[in-house]
Specification:
The complex is a heterodimer.
Chain A (H helix, E strand, L loop, with lengths): L6 H17 L2 H8 L6 H13 L18 H14 L6 H14 L2 H12 L5 E4 L15 E5 L2 E9 L9 E7 L8 E6 L6 E7 L5 E14 L3 E2 L5 H15 L3 H16 L12 H29 L7 H22 L31 H7 L10 H12 L3
Parallel strand pairs in A: 1-4
Antiparallel strand pairs in A: 2-3, 3-7, 4-5, 5-8, 6-7
Chain B lengths: L2 H22 L2 H8 L7 H9 L17 H14 L8 H11 L3 H13 L4 E3 L16 E3 L2 E9 L7 E8 L2 E8 L5 E4 L11 E9 L1 E5 L1 H36 L1 E2 L2 E2 L4 H30 L4 H26 L11 H14 L3 H11 L8
The chains are: A alpha+beta, B alpha+beta.
């Protein structure tokens, strides 16, 4: 298989680089280089800049109003963005709910959400998991009962990322109590009466997760995505998309680049961590993992473009999330005693770096990222469950 | 003391400490400690002092209970299990250094209040930018005067005395510094685990007591700290295993407790063997230290390496076993995760301890 770029793709890469040099705001780049959770405002502002440049929906096909780029060009775009420190375009909008609506939704829903998504104006809360239905999503109990032109929703969702700032919620609810997987995907206004959103503070003391409670919440039946009872099927295809992007090659690449820089820095006694054979061997191991993961992704993209569809979401998710955690652990080690310091998150300190301690410029965010990254092997379906999926669907065990 | 008497005394220590911690190591109190820059539970420390915990490992002729490092090991394992943070290792370490020093003045002044728990000590060896506290220090010492700095050290924010090593004309010199003096500045900053009460120290013509001289003596002090810390790490790792096991039995998915799934069973088994290997190494080192085996520092280094591996792994996989619940502030697993990383880094990286082990075991890394 040939992964070398032809001259037109090389020229495209140069064009993306030039765009980033000219248009990526320095403060946004600086904040996202720090490994903190990206600010919603930054993500939205950046999406708008990309849109205004004439690149609406870099990963969307032309018939949806997107750029219509090849998978390879999408990959180049994302990689260059990550290396330059641009925030990732919202996964929920561009990879999950947007594609779902554009594929299965009614014309009314397509018209309602297409342009706002492309302009970076939507923020989606994914109401799938429940206290007793996480990796085992089939156990969910939230009900949606049809009454005239409305659904009445009752239930409790948990780990709803961004629900507190979302302008649209998408709820997976049981519409047919008889059928084991009689679920439907329904859009709900987070401000609707009966919706209660409670914060869940995460391991790094950040707030992106929520508990979302629905008590007799009414939503028009027009807000049903696709067909009633097909929610399970939609959720599966959407989670597969989430998993494929959770290999996060661009972000993994950026992280490893950062680790390399940290290890090359001269320390107090003039030595460098990279000169330590033990450390260098472990770093090399991660570089090999990244290369393998990148080629796996490219292969999957090429084959997808050719019409066959490898169900590689689980594979990419497992390898990508584990690589992310290992890189974070080594970054923490490379930070040495500076790890005893946390740095204020960017929204608390406009200039990012506290006046003291005078740690290296790459120190801020490393600890926060180290804490938060524990979630990567859990969200989108725990890695244990992904391994089961691989065993069942790839190996037929 | 006969061996069965000693065993009974150790059991008593464990029971006493466990009871104390049941009262103080509540999730609310532990979380409150993480929420402040310098998290130190004075009430728990006071209760520990009333039980005589700082005196446990100190020799009887110095006013202690004379239970030595086996006593300290039992104590630290309980401390680790409850994921509380108490400055109990530095006290016997400083006491040893005071007793070994030729100068009797500092012992006369500080030994009794340290053993009684009236004063708190800390060990501050790491320096800014260094990855190993076993490296030659840059902190300069001229007679009894110190100039330079030490990187953030556990309990330095609340300690009265710091044990540091400094460079005295090319030789390493162990010094005891009273921290409450104009020449000492402490700097605190929120960090990965605020319950460690970290502070970085700066010395400008600070007055200190010279105690011992030479790299070997200082290496052995680090090895003692490492050995006691290994027991704290083993205690923490065991608590992670117990916590993960409890959750695996209680949490249901796909119609059964998740502990019934092989993926979870194997995870718990992998925690278990790492902990037992670490415990084996640590007990071996303890035995060698007690028996006067000159290889004990190498064995202590091995115990540290195994304990780091066990605690890191157990803390990580405990979070994973808890699923999304494990990445919440509310749940307990992140306390262990923070502590595991801090204990792994505070005394220098695994790389530094591998080198120390090789050197102590008689392998010259440079010649190999």
């Amino acid at each position: 298989m040939d992964f070398s770029l032809d001259p037109a793709d090389e020229a495209f890469r140069d064009e993306v680089r030039q765009f980033l040099r000219e248009k990526l705001p320095a403060d946004i780049a600086e904040r996202s280089r720090r490994g903190y959770h990206p600010l919603l405002a930054d993500v939205q502002a950046w999406t708008r800049i990309v849109y205004d440049h004439g690149w609406p929906g870099p990963n969307w096909p032309a018939e949806w109003g997107g750029c219509g780029w090849t998978h390879l060009r999408q990959f180049i775009f994302e990689e260059e963005c990550a290396l330059a420190g641009a925030p990732q375009l919202d996964v929920a909008s561009f990879r999950m709910f947007g594609p779902l609506i554009m594929t299965f939704g009614s014309d009314a829903l397509k018209n309602r959400y297409r342009d706002p998504i492309l302009r970076g104006e939507t923020c989606w809360g994914q109401g799938f998991s429940e206290p007793n239905a996480g990796s085992d999503l089939g156990a969910l109990t939230t009900r949606a009962v049809r009454e005239g032109d409305e659904y009445v929703i009752n239930g409790r969702k948990i780990w709803t990322t961004n629900a507190h700032v979302a302008n649209v919620l998408c709820v997976l609810a049981r519409t047919n109590p008889e059928s084991r997987r009689g679920f439907s995907m329904i859009i709900v206004d987070p401000k609707a009466p009966g919706v209660t959103i409670r914060p869940i503070i995460d391991i790094g003391e950040g707030h992106s997760l929520n508990e979302t409670i629905f008590e007799d919440v009414r939503t028009p039946v027009d807000n049903l995505i696709g067909e009633e009872g097909q929610g399970w099927h939609y959720a599966k295809s959407l989670l597969d998309n989430e998993r494929a992007s959770s290999a996060e090659i661009p972000a993994n690449k950026f992280n490893l680049m950062k680790l390399r820089q940290m290890a090359q820095r001269k320390r107090g006694d003039g030595t460098r961590l990279i000169d330590d054979p033990g450390f260098a061997a472990r770093l090399a191991r991660l570089e090999i993992d990244l290369q393998a993961l990148e080629f796996l992704t490219l292969r999957a993209l090429t084959e997808k473009a050719g019409g066959t569809r490898l169900p590689v979401g689980s594979l990419l998710k497992v390898r990508g999330s584990e690589l992310f955690q290992k890189t974070g652990e080594m970054q923490l080690e490379a930070l040495g005693d500076y790890v005893s310091y946390a740095y204020p998150p960017p929204e608390q300190s406009p200039h990012g770096i506290a006046a003291w301690p005078p740690g290296p410029a790459f120190a801020p965010g490393v600890v926060a990222d180290f804490m938060y990254r524990r979630a990567t092997t859990i969200y989108g379906g725990a890695n244990e469950v992904q391994r089961q999926i691989i065993a069942r669907s790839f190996l037929e065990l | 003391m006969s061996s069965s008497d000693a065993e009974e005394a150790l059991c008593q220590i464990r029971d006493q400490v466990a009871r104390l911690q049941h009262r103080y190591a509540t999730p609310e109190r532990l979380k409150a400690l993480l929420d402040q820059t310098v998290g130190f539970d004075r009430a728990l420390w006071q209760a520990a002092v009333e039980q005589g915990q700082p005196a446990i490992a100190v020799p009887e002729h110095a006013g202690g209970m004379g239970m030595g490092w086996p006593g300290l090991a039992a104590l630290m394992e309980e401390v680790g299990k409850a994921v509380v943070s108490l400055p109990l290792i530095a006290t016997p370490v400083v006491a040893e250094a005071l007793l070994a020093s030729d100068d009797e003045a500092p012992a006369a002044r500080y030994l009794a209040p340290l053993v009684s728990g009236e004063l708190i000590a800390c060990v501050a060896f790491a320096e800014p930018g260094q990855t190993s506290p076993l490296q030659r220090p840059e902190l300069a010492c001229s007679g009894d005067t110190l100039n330079g700095s030490k990187a953030a050290a556990a309990f330095a924010a609340v300690a009265d005395l710091a044990l540091v090593h400094a460079d005295a004309d090319g030789a390493s010199q162990l010094m005891l510094v009273p921290l409450d003096q104009p020449g000492v500045t402490r700097r605190t900053q929120p960090g990965l685990d605020n319950a460690r009460a970290h502070a970085a120290l700066q010395f400008r013509d600070a007055k200190a007591y010279p105690l011992l001289r030479g790299d070997a003596a200082i290496g052995k002090i680090m090895a003692r700290v490492a050995l006691a810390t290994a027991f704290e790490q083993i205690g923490g790792a065991s608590a992670c295993l117990a916590c993960a096991r409890g959750y695996a039995l209680e949490r249901k998915a796909f119609g059964q407790p998740i502990g019934r799934f092989q993926a979870i069973k194997h995870k718990l088994v992998d925690m278990y063997w790492r902990i037992e290997i670490a415990r084996g190494c640590a007990l071996d080192a303890l035995d060698a230290l007690e028996g006067g085996n000159p290889l004990w520092p190498a064995l202590a280094a091995a115990a540290r390496l195994a304990a780091i591996e066990a605690y890191d792994f157990a803390a990580r996989e405990n979070i994973q076993t808890h699923g999304a619940m494990g990445v919440t502030w509310e749940a307990m697993p992140h306390h262990y995760y923070r502590r595991a990383r801090c204990l792994a880094l505070e005394l220098g990286s695994t790389q530094a301890w591998r080198e120390y082990l090789l050197a102590e075991a008689g392998f010259d890394a440079a010649a190999a």
